[in-house]
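hi! just following up on the protien thing from before. the input was this:
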Amino acid sequence: MRRHTAIIAAGLLVLAGCGSPTPVQEAAPSTVVRIDFARGPDRPLPTEVHLPPGQGRHPLVVFVHGYTCYVSEYADLIANWVVAGFAVAAPTFPYTNGAAAKLDVMDLLNQPQDVTAVLDGVLARAAKEGDPLYGRIDAERIAAGGHSLGGMTTVGALGKWRDPRLKAGIVLAGSAGEVGAEFRGDPAAMLFIHGMGDQVVTIDKGRAAYDAVPWPKAFLTLPSGTHRNPFMSPADPDFELVAESTTDFLRWRLNGDADARKRLAALGTHFVDRLG
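and the predicted 3d structure came back as:
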């Protein structure tokens, strides 16, 4: 293993807080459809698809968990998006989740293509009459987002392994990392959120990825934010800001919500706004 790869692995393993899964009660009733997707026999991608209450087609967010983390640790953040009317597909990645028999931080390089595989599967199910997802997903309004290694995966899915269906990206405590900042294709607005106190993926790495984005973009700094709690724990003082700003970003980019755009513009001095 190359020396810089070893350093990345050591740093990300500090995420010991991404540990045992804790079930969290969602804020409002929703439907969760569990599907066993896979990209080949050695890449199982079991996925939770969270559907908002009611009928009709909803914008979709593909969410990527962090290294050694569980999807359940993001239940409160996901619930905020679902309550706001967004469907969320949250896969468990085979070699970076907290229960993986074999952990491999460099499997990051395979995960952007996993995002595409999950998106393919969700849209195929949504077009199949009789399926629980039938008629529930708007294939023209899709975003990707992720935390830590999941943020790096999101950068890859909008960069070197670009999925042209993605209209937006959310990077939480992430960077370009090993995927590189090779953004390509049609513009996809991106929101980066990073804590000043992040000792795992330092904020300068997040800013470097942000600087490389050639499209509409924004960077929200959390002055006292750490690597995990603002994105996982409602008890964290920054969690509400993360939940509201990401939700408004999705409302603006995927729904064309002008009021949401105004709320983003009013976030203040810690928000660098180049969304246009």
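Residues 1-17, 20-28 have pLDDT under 50 and may be disordered.
The longest strand covers residues 137-147.
cheers
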